[in-house]
Amino acid sequence: MTDPRPLIAIPGDDPPQLQGSPHLDRLRGYGEVRLFADRPADAEEKVRRAQGAACLINSRSAVKWPGDVLRRLPHLRLISVCGIGTDAIDLDAAQELGIAVCNIPGRTAPIVAEHAFGLMFAVAKRAWWQTDQVKRGRWVGRDNFYLRGKTLGVVGAGPIGAEMIRLGLAVGMKVQAWTFHPSAERAGRLGVPFVGLEELLRNSDVVSLHVKLTDRTRGLIGAREIGWMKPGAILINTARGAVVDSHALAAALNDGRLGGAGIDVYEVEPVPADHPLLACEQVVLTPHNADQTPEGMDLLNAGVVDNVIAFLEGRPVNRVV
């Protein structure tokens, strides 16, 4: 970079991710860091906050960067995201404009997988529903779901999916997986068979989603696919909300065809009051915080700062575009 003191903008750090992080001190040696602790209200506010920035850190995927906004930021050369997913950014526009987009693959995979694993147990043991019943003074019985010996289907075999496979095997579940890129070598390394998506959905007692959001995975689990699932099966989603048709999922939960769902991600975040899953009994819902532990926050903050520093030093890493 020719400017010795480039502007590094963090336009919407809400909920807090980078604010207060010691890793920001490393960035200040490379440029002016401008952090906003609330989310921009609209496109005009996004442009105002990022105007003049060479580097932008998108610490929250709820803050979107469509092409029309990116085209109004002529100095922008890098967007680094605090995680794996880059679906908040118009990648075609970024490529057209010569803006590098960097993510942080794999750093928090064990943390996210542990959250998905916890959601699976919470749903299987009906933790939220039974807590609610006890609080209401109702001493009612309903069968829980015994997981050992059951079949776990893992959709997506990247770093998080691989960790979920390991956890499932560790508690005595039978595990199968699906991926766009199966191979005998990967199957052998993971210790599970790769099967087709329909076969996985039909034969799994628990289905856990671990794919990134792309044109191929948007709506991957719709009404047809939910119809393939075993009666009483459980669905876990810590991937992206738009991977699943929430209305079809809610319908299957409300009519008792599925046994429950554990959801950390939603099509719109924060979740609107009329979201169909909010009216379902057998759900456990968390606010897109699967990697939000002190350890996870530090790993993400270190990774996003590393990406910016590497770019400014002329050795960009983890580039998506």
Any overview of this molecule?
The protein is α/β, with parallel strands linked by helices and 321 residues long. The chain folds into 2 domains: 7-107 and 294-312, Rossmann fold (3-Layer(aba) Sandwich), CATH 3.40.50.720; 109-285, 3-Layer(aba) Sandwich (Rossmann fold), CATH 3.40.50. Helices cover 34% and strands 14% of the residues. It has helices spanning 23-27, 43-50, 67-70, 91-97, 109-124, 127-135, 159-170, 184-190, 197-203, 223-228, 246-254, 294-312, and strands at residues 7-10, 32-35, 53-58, 78-81, 100-102, 151-155, 174-178, 206-209, 234-237, 260-263, 283-285. The strands form 2 sheets. The chain has a 6-stranded parallel β-sheet with strand order 7-6-8-9-10-11, sandwiched between helices. A 5-stranded parallel β-sheet has the order 2-1-3-4-5, sandwiched between helices. α4 (91-97) links the parallel β4 (78-81) and β5 (100-102). α5 (109-124) packs across α7 (159-170). The longest helix has 19 residues, at 294-312. The model has no long low-confidence stretch (mean pLDDT 95).
